[in-house]
Specification:
The radius of gyration is 19 Å and the shape is elongated. Strands 1-5-4 form a 3-stranded antiparallel beta sheet. By secondary structure, the chain is mainly alpha-helical. It is built from 10 helices and 5 strands, in the order αααααβαββαββααα. β4 and β5 form a beta hairpin.
């Protein structure tokens, strides 16, 4: 089930549990009942502002609407696809590109690509499975890791891998992010994530909720500062 579908299901359940009519919810959203019926029928999506209104109506945090399933197959394919696109990349920059892909896609569609959880660290958001997957791919000989000054450089040892779990739209989005950051230094992408609301609103060691990216300036979700 897509996250958008799950949100609609939750809204219906919350409406019924609260005893509110469809007309009452429509009025709270400042839409007519027919338009709201399209929401419950899955023919119309709710935007972020409407979700914030409904969170207030039902007395819940907006985070409760978002329950991201984790897709490790997608995450591994994202990881290797970015490596293929760049040829080589620092370990830190790779972690940040994965973050921008997942959180950027959530901002655009209300769904991350992989759904893995990201941890707030002093050097920016890091996927909680990042180090485990990196070690696993290294042990399997699928990537190489080379020390270089104060960084670790990761390379894919083969360009042969599948992207069948990723949609064409997801691959296009990853392409866009990689192209935007291709020529940026690692410190630049670290500084960028430090300026974003998700990292700033989280404490070191905490998981960063995807929904925090909703509050970000549209020009600073995944595009480098100009």
């Amino acid at each position: 089930m897509r996250i958008a579908d799950d949100i609609i299901k939750q809204v219906i359940e919350l409406r019924k549990r609260s005893g509110m009519t469809q007309e009452a919810i429509a009025a709270a959203l400042n839409i007519n009942r027919q338009t709201y019926l399209q929401v419950e029928q899955g023919r119309r999506s709710l935007n972020l502002q409407e979700l914030e209104i409904l969170a207030g109506v039902f007395g819940i945090p907006i985070a409760d609407f978002f329950t991201q399933p984790i897709d490790m197959q997608k995450f591994e394919q994202m990881y290797l696809y970015i490596l293929k696109k760049l040829g080589s990349v620092t370990k830190t920059k790779l972690a940040k590109l994965l973050y921008l892909a997942d959180f950027g896609n959530f901002y655009e569609t209300l769904e991350p690509i992989s759904g893995v959880r990201y941890v707030c660290r002093t050097y920016g958001p890091v996927p909680d499975v990042f180090f485990e997957l990196t070690d696993e791919l290294f042990d399997m000989g699928r990537i190489s890791i080379t020390p270089q000054e104060d960084a670790l450089i990761i390379r894919a040892t083969s360009s042969e891998f599948s992207t069948d779990a990723l949609s064409a739209e997801e691959l296009d989005f990853i392409d866009e992010i990689v192209d935007l950051w291709r020529n940026k230094r690692t410190q630049e992408i670290v500084n960028f994530t430090h300026e974003q609301k998700p990292w700033r609103a989280s404490r070191n060691g905490e998981y960063i909720p995807y929904e925090l990216i909703i509050q970000e300036d549209p020009d600073h979700v995944y595009q480098p500062f100009t």
